[in-house]
Amino acid sequence: MVEKNLNNTAHAIGKSIKSSQQKANLVLRSIRGLPVEYAVNVLQFSRRRISNIILKILNSAISNAENNHQLDIDKLYVKEATVGKSMVLKRFRPRARGRAGKILKPFSRIRIELTEKKLEEKESKIQKEPKQEKVENGTKN
After folding, report:
1. What pTM does this model have?
2. Above 80 in pLDDT, residue 61?
3. Cβ–Cβ under 8 Å, residues 87 and 16
4. What is the three-class DSSP state of 101?
5. Quick check: 107 and 17 in contact, CB under 8 A?
6. 35 HSE (CA, 13 A, CB side)
7. Which residues pair with 9 in a beta bridge?
8. Which residues of 36-74 are buried (b: 16+ CB within 10 A; e: fewer)?
9. What is the pLDDT of residue 1?
10. Distances 108 to 22, 84, 105 between C-alpha atoms, Å
11. pLDDT attached to residue 6
12. How far apart are CA 54 and CA 32, in angstroms?
């Protein structure tokens, strides 16, 4: 039996991704709140290495939304795109006078959550726009 997702959300998680959280967050910041079509385009044309991995996670979230939750792909947008810490590889580099310099190689965990935007939400936003006042003779009273 297929059960309908009540809150119209689907997500995908990428674990142990070889990139720092700061570098991943720069790319994720560019896709937050965008419709899925635009987010895919942004990631495809990004020049950062991590954008290819984030694109795979986004495509996984899209397929989860379609197959597991029966959501309409055309109405999906990126609700959340977060990055968190995963493991850290610790290495040492020999330095002068018998000392050692610490090298940290961080890994990240990326979570992308998609939501189906309803048509009523769009229409209500359009109606809530303030009406412009009429201007007579170039001056506003």
Report:
1. 0.77
2. yes
3. yes
4. strand
5. yes
6. 9
7. 115
8. beebbebbeebeeebbebbbebbebbbebbeeebebeee
9. 45
10. 9, 6, 10
11. 61
12. 12
Confidence of residue 7 (pLDDT cuts 50, 70, 90): confident
Query: Encoding tokens for residue 22?
Result: 């700061």
Q: What is the pLDDT of residues 123-141, one digit of tens each?
A: 555 566 665 666 666 665 5
Mean pLDDT for the chain overall: 88
The CA–CA distances, whole Å, from 47 to 27, 29, 52, 82, 130 equal 10, 15, 9, 20, 39
- Tell me: pLDDT of 84 over 70: yes
Longest CA–CA span in the chain (Å) reads 82
How far is 41 from 90, CA to CA, in rounded Å?
Answer: 36
Domains of the chain: 10-127 (3.90.470.10)
